[in-house]
Specification:
This protein has a domain at about 60-170. It has 2 helices and 2 strands. The protein has helices spanning about 30-35, 55-170, and strands spanning about 10-15, 20-25. Strands 1-2 form a two-stranded antiparallel ribbon. α1 runs antiparallel to α2 (about 55-170).
Length: about 170
């Protein structure tokens, strides 16, 4: 992050009020400019007269500020990438969860459909069985009615015959 050297050229100059003006390349904030104006600690550097700006020191400060700014931007970009990855993982996890839920729902729906088909087949089978029993019992009823009619006819004939015999005997 910011370890590679930049090939960008920055040209700047100080105006008569010692304000730093960026001529080409980088735009500097007021706070950066103020820090560049501050005198550095005396560590063997040459000091110029008040109001004069040491070009080497200024260039060094600008380079440091640019490196810090670049590092901050890189850090923010990395945070955005990490956050983006986190969001992507969350989206993928959510999609997987949704997909699993949909598959479970489809399986349950399919199971219900198959169960309904089984019940429909069982109902049709029961209906066929009931119709079969109905036909059998109607046939049995018809036979019983026919036998009953025959029995009634025979009984009636026997009664009539017996009544005729009794009547002929006791006349």
């Amino acid at each position: 992050m910011g370890g590679g050297g930049s090939t960008r050229r920055v040209t700047f100059e100080a105006d008569e009020n010692e304000n730093i003006t960026v001529v080409k390349g980088v735009r500097l904030s007021d706070s950066v400019i103020d820090r560049m104006k501050e005198p550095s600690s005396p560590t063997g550097r040459q000091h110029r007269a008040p109001g004069a700006v040491n070009d080497e020191e200024l260039k060094k400060r600008i380079a440091e500020e640019l490196a810090l700014e670049r590092a901050r931007r890189d850090s923010e970009a990395q945070k955005r990438r990490l956050f983006g990855k986190l969001l992507e993982r969350e989206r993928i996890s959510s999609n997987e969860h949704l997909t699993r839920a949909m598959l479970r729902e489809r399986a349950a729906t399919e199971e219900e459909r198959q169960k309904a088909q089984r019940f429909a087949k069982q109902l049709e089978e029961k209906d066929r069985e009931l119709k079969k029993h109905d036909a059998y019992y109607k046939e049995q009823l018809a036979r019983l009615e026919e036998r009953s009619a025959q029995f009634y006819k025979v009984t009636t004939e026997q009664y009539q015959k017996a009544a005729d015999e009794v009547s002929a005997r006791f006349k």
